[in-house]
Amino acid sequence: MITDVHTHFWKLDHQGPPWTDGLGRVSTQLAAGAIDSVTAESYRRQVVPAARTIVFGLQAQASGIMVPNDAVAAFVREVGGQTVGFMSVDPTRHDAVAEIERCHTDLGLGGIKLGPIYQGTSPLNPLTMRVFSAAERLGLPVMIHQGAIFANAGRLADANPLLLDDVAIAFPELRIVIAHMGHPWVHEAVVVMRRHRNVYADTSAIASRPTVLATALSAAKEYGVLDKVLFGSDSPMVSADSAAAALARVVAHMQRFALTPVTDEELHAILHRPSFELLGIPAVTGTAAAPSACQGAIP
Fold first, then answer.
1. Is the CB of residue 150 less than 8 Å from the CB of residue 22?
2. Which of 77, 159, 212, 268 sits in a 20 to 30 Å window from 70, CA-based?
3. Does residue 296 belong to any structural domain of this protein?
């Protein structure tokens, strides 16, 4: 069973500058449709062949995007199947912790999406640390964008995955997923994963950067944390089918040329990782997404 841990939901009216100014710089070569708005129908197309998915919006006032958590919860209900919604909170807002508790209790959202650089802050800002504290207390995993971004917000110095070492030390029971393997700082992400048992990373977005993806996979294998790499697409920017196919192409190339190649068995394990179980996400009762016509070609 393929699980996609990194998919997005947003509508046009959730977005404004500078987000909308920079969105055009995002590569769409691996997308399966428009990237500026997501519907239940387009989402179902984008996530095939994944049978389980995690979907979230983003709340980042500094970047001009505010997706209401109630809209995410409604979207999850509309999509159905094995889809779990994560809330997003902007740490700079005074009500961030209250919103986490409301979304967890009232909306049933099963995790938190953060992007400190999008939100114009740092993971080590006390305002962000209180979000991590609430997440650990409630047993909610955190998906964090800790890497480069397309929008002109925040400071790159605050986006280095090495900063998550301090977070994991402060909150050792908190499950953290470093989105996009922390690109371009993939080695920094990997050493943090090795040091902390509850820190993972996903492959989302970097399918369109094959050199970065190959480097990240080799580094994860060399540091003994390839089993903590989770499959993610970055839908709608990258469809799950395209992301899985790109992974397969990169792995095939690595097997010919890389000093530390990834085997077919290791690729299969990444695609079929029991990510919900690793992140402590309860099983969802529902119907799995329909497989694509090319699903048989996915390892």
1. yes
2. 159
3. no
